[in-house]
Design goal:
The protein is mostly helical. The protein folds into two domains: 187 residues, no CATH class; 156 residues, no CATH class. It is 67% helix and 0% strand. It has 13 helices and no strands. Helix 6 crosses helix 12, helix 10 packs antiparallel against helix 11 and helix 11 runs antiparallel to helix 12. It is flat and about 65 Å long.
Length: 374
Amino acid sequence: MQGISATPASQNTAVRWWLIGVAALIALMVLVGGATRLTESGLSIVEWKPVTGTLPPLTDAQWQEAFEGYKKIPQYRELNAGMTLAEFKTIFWWEWAHRLLGRFIGAAYLLPFLFFLWRGGLSAELKRRLWLLFALGALQGAVGWWMVASGLTQRTEVSQYRLAAHLILALVIFAAIVWTVRRMKALPAVAAAPRLKLFGHILLWLTFLQIYFGALVAGLRAGRAYNTWPEIDGAFIPSADRLFFETPWWRNLFDSVLTVQFEHRMTAYLLLAMALWHAVDAVRARAPSAVIGGAWWLAGAVLVQAVLGILTLLQQVPLDLALAHQAVAIVVLTIAVVNVERLSPRRVTALSEKLAPVVGPAGWSRPGDATKHQ
């Protein structure tokens, strides 16, 4: 049975490092996007020009034209009226950098991918995965503009729903790359109790849910309200009539500043408790050392993330703490994905670890060379 790592060893290594580089760029993109949101810069470019938008304004006339476009949207009229051109340039550069990095990631993914396809040797399953990742990346660009468009006509900020969708899709792509890189490496199967595997999956999905709630907090600027801990709105658990005053009740989960911050806090407590329990359970079950170590790393990362979240809240979301909080969220997600992958069954052993490929002058194997020389 052919697996995603059934490629010549030299090309397998190159593909893995390429994907690691793309994952690192996506992590950087998430942080730049966070800074763009925190500096209220995301609506400074009011047009989507995938090709010509690569270049920033180069003349005074072009800068003035971009500024005039920004003046037409509600955010300028209601929040930034009287802004100078110099102040506009500050927010413009954040959004331009965010979009440019997105274009760079697209090129950094597509061009090496086409090269690897041309060289041959990628397994059918790996090619399917890589094409799916490319499609998700293209979708992410469209979702990004869909998000920006929500703040150009009637709102002074982007929709928190669309912001959360944009972030989650980026991290789904990131997580899929981390999983794929792990699956391309020949590692022995890990024997662990079924409950450890179940808890690993629950922790991964809970991490995604917590990040989603964090995006809603950012979209609603909810971190700038209720800046006390452990109490929120005067109590550890606010009254139900404060949490669910909108109708239908479920809208409070997405639209209410108090409710969104509360659910983000409660999910953090749950995630931390379950991560600690998972680590203790791995020790009690005498799981392999890799499983125990991974579980403790996850618990430690979640604890750091919780502390950063509290500090960010108490300091009313300063840029440095907020970005550190977001960066550690990516670390938590990475460890959670690796933890689940480690506990998941492996269908095949990497053929690249079994076969000694015949390496040509350029250091690359051609498909079938190893089999021919067995």
